[in-house]
Amino acid sequence: MSYNLKEELKKEDRLSGGHRMCAGCGSPIAVRTVLRALNPEDKAVVCSATSCLEVSTFMYPYTAWKDSFIHNAFENAGATISGVETAYKALKKRGKLDDTYKFIAFGGDGGTYDIGFQSLSGAMERGHDMVYVCYDNEAYMNTGIQRSSSTPHFADTTTTPAGSVIPGKLQKKKDLTKIMVAHGVPYAAQTTFMGNFSDISTKAHKAIYTPGAAFLNIMAPCPRGWRYPTEKLMEVTKLAVETCVWPLYEVIEGKYILSYKPKTKLPITEYLKMQGRFAHMFKKGNEWMIEEAQQEVDRNWEALLAMCGEL
Amino acid sequence: MGIRERLSGNEAIAFAMKQINPDVMGAFPITPSTEIPQYFSTYVDNGQVDTEFIPVESEHSAMSTCIGAQAAGCRAISATSSCGLSYMTEMLYVAASDRLPITLAVSCRALSGPININNDHSDAMSVRDAGWLMLFAETNQEAYDNYLQAMRIGEAVSLPIMICQDGFITSHAIENIELVEDEKVKAFVGEYKPEHALLGKENPMAVGAYATPVYYMEAKRAQAQAMMDAKDVIKKVGAEFAAMTGRSYDLIEKYEMDDAEEALIIIGSSAGTAKEAIRELRAQGKKVGLIKIRSFRPFPADEIAEALKNVKAFAAMDKDDSFNAHCGPIYAEVCAALYAKGIFAPKGIDYIYGLGGRDVRVESIQHVYAELEKIAASGETGETYRYLDVRE
Hints:
The complex is a heterodimer.
Chain A: H1 5-8, H2 27-36, E1 43-48, H3 52-57, E2 68-71, H4 77-93, E3 101-108, H5 109-114, H6 117-126, E4 130-136, H7 176-181, E5 187-191, H8 198-209, E6 213-219, H9 223-226, H10 233-242, E7 249-252, E8 255-258, H11 268-272, H12 287-307
Parallel strand pairs in A: 1-2, 1-3, 3-4, 4-6, 5-6
Antiparallel strand pairs in A: 5-7, 7-8
Helix pairs in contact in A: 2-8, 4-6
Chain B: E1 3-8, H1 9-20, E2 24-27, H2 35-45, E3 52-55, H3 59-72, E4 76-80, H4 82-97, E5 103-108, H5 122-126, E6 133-136, H6 140-157, E7 161-166, E8 174-179, H7 182-189, E9 206-207, H8 213-245, E10 252-255, E11 262-266, H9 270-283, E12 288-293, E13 295-297, H10 301-308, E14 313-318, H11 329-340, E15 347-352, H12 362-378, E16 385-387
Parallel strand pairs in B: 2-3, 2-4, 4-5, 5-7, 6-7, 11-12, 11-14, 14-15, 15-16
Antiparallel strand pairs in B: 1-8, 6-13, 10-12
């Protein structure tokens, strides 16, 4: 059945409105889209790492989650959801449960790339029937925009401020999706918000309904940390894709498949210039930073094309 | 009549787990508790239980999986020691505040550093304020018996429970033990039927909310109440267990305390050594006794104060140190218990002993009684913060 956004949006939202996430934040959009990919008759248990998402959606005595939900701590969404999934297996085996449940964990890049990396790696390696979704906003936004291993090269954050001696983050962004692929999981994909949401929705559905452990990495911009006008969210993600800063691809049983190839690959400046976190890169004398960033994108893109057999 | 066997403490715990056949175990090996998940995964792989075993990548994840599984509506168990328990600490607090009656077997071992694999209580004592029920065993039999009672106690008050024994001393030493028949165990432990669960049939459930200052304290107060309520539950379950096996259990065990003038307060396997010391001293006409703490959490403050009120001198025996330049945790809690009851007559001292597997001999304990005898005679406690059997 072909994807139809109008039809998709008729499904009941599984994350209700009225939560406290910021306007222009990508995270709740990622969550709602992923949960919409569940078959409406299936139940789910959702886990969230400690994050903006968690503290903004489940403040006692209110919850925005219509499915069963568990928050445990910052660094263990992978382990926590694997405990829930294993409980499901145990109860099913013992004939105590007959409903169909799906298991989805959400974490920001802090809870996924960094502090929760070990727990995630363990869950992926053990192959629980679950999906781990990283909503990647490229810094520790909940504590106030500190750098993470996902923060891009040169970005200005509160722990890598663009100073007079050190010009922002000195290290490159960690390529987590490929690390997850290296776990031998049956499904891993990288996506974000594009056009009619076909890419993210299709990948979320595949991730949820592929038996075994699946990983989805969703670029989910943060207007506070990236410093773009809240209404420009979709432009930011589109430019990330069109500049090949954030390529869309999926890996099925180890096979890389490119999801989208821009007709004309735009220069990285188109993406950088609309975000305050990169403003210092456009100052006189810092041209080398843009050059270096462009070279990195080019290199990564070429490597990905090769892996996808697109060269 | 039970089944006579010879088992190490770790085997006894694993055997109790097998008899209970819980839903999920998440565990990571660490000396000296490693054998517990080893034995248990053998039961799993040979189909002697149908528990789902999760071979996690760390103790932090072990407790995290247990939290997920128990919140989902299952009985979840784990086992650990020492640094593994420390590594779980953050999650221990969450388990207690989420009111999840997880059962954790602890084979107690010293904490690093220096790194050391032998017994003391610094691991368990370091998490004494995490909100877990904590039962300690003197012998393999007690470790086994405590484990069989654990889920009944934890589930009655919705709190997680630690079943502690002494690493190597009981975890690896093989002793005679009397096992309870499988069907009796199953009937005694019963089914786990949580009121709410993530996988609950009727309603979804949300676990682990963010609590603002408006609600946080009420959550903690409710947790404190559950711990207070647990005292009666432990006694009740202990009495029921006694009716089944003839082996009775309470919050504390008093040994030769009726007319004791000098007493020790002790936890774990060294109570056995102390009992031998007492038998010898009693034969010499000395009025010495012992209070063994079985339940450290909840702390049996009233029971200890009552048992100590007529002694002339006591020594709290702490198998770890709080490094407060003052005393270990048992001494602090015993003194608080006496003070709260208005009992000021007994003179008390604290001994830090047996750290990192330092042997605790009958003579070591007799030395403590000799010191207590001097204090009882003179009324002078002298230094209250002492180390036993140490080169200085």
